[in-house]
Amino acid sequence: MNSITRSLRIALALASAVAGRCEAVDASVGMQSIPTGAYVPVQRSTQDPESVPVAAFRLDERPVTNADFLAFVTAVPKWRRSAVSPLFADASYLGHWAGDLEPGARAPADAPVVRVSWFAARAYARWAGKRLPTTAEWELAAAAGYTTPAGKNEPAFNRDLYAWLARPVPDILPSVATARATLHGVRGLHGLVWEWVDDFNTAMVTGESRADTGLERDLFCGAGAAGAKDTSDYAAFMRSALRSSLQANNTTTSLGFRCASSLP
Predict the structure, then answer these.
(1) pLDDT at position 21
(2) CA 31, 173, 71 angle in degrees (round to 5)?
(3) Which of 90, 179, 197, 209 is placed for a possible disulfide with 188 were both Cys, Cβ 3.0 to 4.6 Å?
(4) How far apart are the first and last CA of the chain?
(5) Cα separation, 138 vs 134, whole angstroms
(6) Where's the Sulfatase-modifying factor enzyme-like domain (predicted)?
């Protein structure tokens, strides 16, 4: 299902809700099944397992768009830009939108929504009857290439991934439809925006490693490098570093999200 069709379904559901009607919406529409697998952390302490089993789950085919998020803030006013609490989103929340209910020219309807906090992303997911993916789920899905389960071994996949990492964030993000589908039929895990995960704050510890007695020292400096599973996976290190730098109310011009759901 393309992004326009999905957004239309959301809009229709919203219109029904406003009209006082209850229309059941199948939350699995627009999602792809990710098969059972294992997530191998790029960096771990001596107490962490080498791999984390991941049960099969569903993942949105593409990131949440401005049109999707507009439907959400229309239905749930407390998440509009002028109403959101600073506890749940910083001052740049939806800062590129023209207004509370007007994304405007800098936020095309079919582009990924960005400048959203983890709190807002989680609220959207619950509103949509879904949840945010865990780090293990997101990384398992993102490990797939265009044609194989291991994208890091595909030259074309790596070329596109690292070309995206090298480019500045554009002022206006492209349509989610421009992203090439992976083996699992998922688009844009790489190449559009970074994405929130439910347990982002477990990526690493925070604090100053030489003075904080509460730190996991196996994750720093030489110990961290020695514990790295694959030192060539530069992109995974970048994702880990980003997650560990975030706070739940942060928003940025290149950070969006997508939703997941558990299989029955």
Answers:
(1) 41
(2) 50
(3) 179
(4) 22
(5) 6
(6) 41-260
The average pLDDT across 52-79 equals 98
Give residue for tokens 């925070």.
Answer: 206
Name the burial class of residue 68, with classes exposed (0-12), middle (13-18) and buried (19+) by CB atoms within 10 angstroms of its CB. Answer: buried
Quote the CA–CA distance of 52 and 252 in Å, as a whole number: 29
CB-count burial class (<10 Å; 0-12, 13-18, 19+) for 39: buried
Read off the pTM.
Answer: 0.83
> Helix count (H) and strand count (E) of the chain?
7, 7
Topology given in CATH for the domain delimited by 53-206+239-262: paralog of FGE (formylglycine-generating enzyme) (3.90.1580)
Separation of CA 156 from chain center: 23
172 has a pLDDT exceeding 90: yes
pLDDT in the model for residue 1: 45
Question: Element (H or E) spanning 195, and its range?
Answer: strand 194-195
Laid out side by side, the sheet with 260-262 consists of 31-34, 57-60, 260-262
For residues 55, 264, 72, 172, the Cα torsion angle rounded to the nearest 10 degrees is 40
The DSSP code for 174 is: P
Give the pLDDT confidence score for residue 241 in this predicted structure.
87
Q: Can you tell me whether residue 102 is helix, strand or coil?
A: strand
Amino acid symbol at 197: V
Which sequence spans correspond to the domains of the chain?
53-206+239-262
Task: Tokens for 140, please give them.
Answer: 């398992």
Phi, psi for 140 (deg, rounded to 5): -65, -45
Question: Do strands 260-262 and 57-60 pair parallel, antiparallel, or not at all (unpaired)?
Answer: antiparallel
Higher pLDDT, 77 or 224: 77
Helix (H) or strand (E) holding 57: strand 57-60
Residues in the chain: 264
Return d(Cα 236, Cα 113) in angstroms, integer. Answer: 22
